[in-house]
UniProtKB/TrEMBL annotation, chain A:
SUPFAM superfamilies: Acyl-CoA N-acyltransferases (Nat). This is N-acetyltransferase domain-containing protein. Residues 1-105 form the N-acetyltransferase domain. GO terms for molecular function: protein-N-terminal amino-acid acetyltransferase activity. PROSITE patterns: GNAT. It holds the Pfam family Acetyltransf_1. GO terms for cellular component: NatB complex. Gene3D superfamilies: 3.40.630.30. Keywords: Acyltransferase, Transferase. PANTHER family: N-ALPHA-ACETYLTRANSFERASE 20.
Automatic annotation (TrEMBL), chain B:
Belongs to the MDM20/NAA25 family. Gene3D superfamilies: 1.25.40.1040. This is Phagocyte signaling-impaired protein. Keywords: TPR repeat. It comes from the Eukaryota. Transmembrane segments: none annotated. It comes from Kingdonia uniflora.
Amino acid sequence: MCLQKNYVVAVMGKVEGQGESWHGHVTAVTVAPEYRRQQLAKKLMNMLEDISDKIDKAYFVDLFVRASNIPAIKMYEKLGYVIYRRVLRYYSGEEDGLDMRKALSRDVDKNSMIPLKKPVTPDELEYD
Amino acid sequence: MSSRFGMAGGIPERRVRPIWDAVDSRQFKSALKLSTSLLSKYPNSPYAIALKALILERMGKVEEALSVCLTAKERLYSDKLVFIDDLTLSTLQIVFQRLGHLDFATSCYEYACGKFPNNVDLMMGLFNCYVREYSYVKQQQTAIKMYKTVVEERFLLWAVCSIQLQVSCGNGEEKLLLLAEGLLKKHVVSHSLHEPEALLVYISVLEQQAKYGAALELLSGKMGSLLVIEVDKLYIQGRLLARSCDYVAAAEIFKKVMEICPDDWENFLNFLGCLLEDDSRWCNGMLSDQIHRPRFVDCKLSHLADEVFDTRVSIASDFVETLQTNATSDSLRCPYLAKLEIERRKHLYGTGDTVNLKEALLKYFCRFGHLACFATDVEMFFQVLSPDERTQLLTKFIESCEPPHTAQLKVLGKSITIFKIRELIGTMFRLPVNKLERAVKFMAELYCQNLSLSKDLDPQENMPGEDLLSLASNVLVQLFWRTRLLGYLLEAVMVLEYGLTIRRYSWQYKVLLVHLYSHLSALPLAYEWYKTLEIKNIMLETVSHHILPQMLISPLWVDSSDILKDYLKFMDDHFKESADLTFLAYRHRNYSKAVEFVEFKERLQHSHQYWMARIEAPILQLKQKADNIDEEECVLENMNSGIQLIDYSSEERCKALTFNEDMQSRPWWTPSSDKNYLLGPFEEDSIKTRENLLQQQQTTEREVRARIIIQIRALVPRLIYLSIQSASSSLKETLEANDSIFDDNMSLKMKSLLECYARSLGLAFNDAVKEITSIANGQKSLEVSCSSIIDWMNFAVFVGAWKLSSREPSSPDGDSWRPGSLHIVDNFLKKFIIEKLKAMKPLTEFPGNDLLILVQMVTEPLAWHSLVIQSCIRASYPSGKRKKKSGPTTDLLTSPLFQAIQGSIESLRGTLEELTKFMQDQINASDDEILDKLFAPFQRKGCSEGPGQIIHILEDLASGSSEEEHGDRIARALHSWSSIDCLRKILVGQRKVLTEFELICESKLKLLQTLKLQM
């Protein structure tokens, strides 16, 4: 992973899942305040998506974001992510989380991005 | 949880599943019932017994769980048992681990592996046990056994990583790496490697042995194709070439990386370093300190001949120009920064011309001056210029700022950048006061003019121009430092509170406020803002320094205890979990991460802040209970009479300390937790060189001092314990001859600790004792820093207590301490406390640290001394009878020691009464009068100098704000602003600290009164 000057940005992720749920997961993405508004987060996300797609052959990339974090949600939407499902009280049993997803080339029909109609609880999440 | 054959631990799975389901849904009672029924069918099954132990542990029945677990272990060892599976062992392991008996779990696995030597599942479990115990050698041996059994690549890599850990974190010698290399080589010949991580580990083993050529061969060979990300591969190749001093080839490789990633600054530095044959990036290994990133690029003066240097530099310049031409994005900064770095190197070499550098900087400003990171980007290039050149360049920046059609956001960004550069390079500190005032007014006006740009922003988004209020607050603090007009300091607070009224998410404002409120002794407000920062996880390690040091010496014990608990919980949880994470990394074949996790844990385990918290948490408890000797003794008992902390005081151990605090987020006036420029007079020079000082010398000094503090503080609990014992013993000695519980051996041990303490204070024991005597007798004054005063006062108390029962024939001070050792301590304490008290001025008008030092004097040395007295008095009662009616005998009452105790009580009472009076005077002062006084500077409308001008600008904005201009949210926030409420809050915060301190003093007075009555 190439990083910008003075390690001012970082992205952390992993691949997980079984079968068609094999996916890249963004654990964290962050840009130091001084370096924001330079599209650095977009570059990092693209990098992670590229690795998930070409190297790990994943079907999609997903991430969790606080439902109240409107600027982040907007940014992910601009990057092509959709809200796949709402996870009730995901953050410390208080705030809802949004599970956002973006299909990769292996998911030709973009099935992984079809939103669920009902929210889920953290117990219903599948862990690998 | 079940085996492949529908059996779990030798029991059909259908019988076991309901128990696990009940456990998972926390239905422990029903789980226990089911388990009892299972046990009736399988009474000798270790698995069934282990399950019961697991349930009992979850129910909190720790002792019972351990006993059941041990029964399961016994059954496991039974000769009759023919079947042991990993499920049984892992269940036992879980329980043993939670009960803190990793060793039992390990021995179970060791036994099982001995009985079934070729069972890989069991060996994996055993490996896991050794990972938990950080037993690298045993890990290695087990991994090798597994490898020999099934010849799988992963087990070989587990062994190799275990060897690497022996070398980096254990006591293993580097030649062990030869063994790792041999193992890998042999495996590659027969099986090659199949995982990219395996190749990376192989390369790292070779690199650690400086076998760069062999590593390069691997990379360029067949196995090199395992690394599918081309850039990653090139990066490693370049690094290996550079470390083998093949700079020409390395430069070519890094050039290729630049072509693929033109915005990679680190890689450009690699490229330039190789061109100029400068090994500073390679000689100390790769940069590893992610917390204290250097602000300046380290480089050596080139040894190249002029001609060669010029050629290499022109190669770099041409390449950078090509990158600039090919740049496809406006936001690509690296090729332009690279130009600056080339000019800087030329200048350092002596062939550069600052004209070129200034020109390049101006171009960089025109292109990127609006970015928030501009000032940080160019800071090191400004350092090359003379003060005059910097000023000229800034003027050029300003002149270039007026293109008529530039977007408003960019113009604003550039204006902020200019202020930031002025702050960074220190020119703000050389401006006269009136110009500073003008500058800060301009900042406030600019903020107001541009607030409408934030009209439609989400409150969580950064606002354009937000930095202006932090900059303004910084200038106001400087104005306070220079003029000593409190109004400026209060205005600095108000400006930030105003900003937070508009947007509560700005952490920059909050951090500054934490420090400003701490300086104003309004600690509850500091703590409130600190809490809203919502610092979590590893940030607790890097950020807690903003609040922890001042809270620890404050009277806000409950909050301090919370901060310590949160921090220690995170750290201890991590230490508990980190081995599991490491094993997970092994299991997922992320070998390099396994090594990284262990090294990270090691770093945290040696963290300065962690050690400090480990030591200060029990000291805080001791402070809280010091008015009741019985409760104090319970606290001491829980920490093994202070013995467990003594280990931290070892000089050898302290050498391994790591410092993870991120100091860059602190305000300029308090660059480290023990430095506060505002407490002294204005020093232009110290600020001018601040950055350099902080980066080099001061950091080292701070670390040296931090190690000494750890060494001293780790001794305190044990010395408190020994002081109590010594005091009690001296009384008993007076009462009943030869009935001393504080034998000579204990006395010697105490003396030895006092000798260590004295050494940390910088003196030999005898000299330190003489120093105390001279000061107590008024023959000399102690000249030490404020932070050391407490260490000296504590030392005096402990020496005094030791002297009470010491039988040393000749004392360095001619035995002047006996029997009057208490008297000397009384004088010593009184002298410092009263001196400090006399120097104190009303808190609301004269902020600073003095109040907290006074608090520490009372809650530590004075409290420990009162414990010595409590111990004496308690011992004066016949054993088992501590009631007032059966008080001390007449003989004892007339003894010199008893009279000295009476004297001590009177002395302490006198001191505390004076303190209480001082506090009450401040607490009872009229709020309105104080507020009028504080608010006066802000009521002088129309004044063109002095404090108040900025807040007037902001107040005008607030009163004139409308929904149309600023949007509903901001307009509402602005209308709610009240300057006087902000000042009132400060007053309330300060009162809270005073009240808490007064309560502490009153409690101690009450105790002394009781003691007096008991005599």
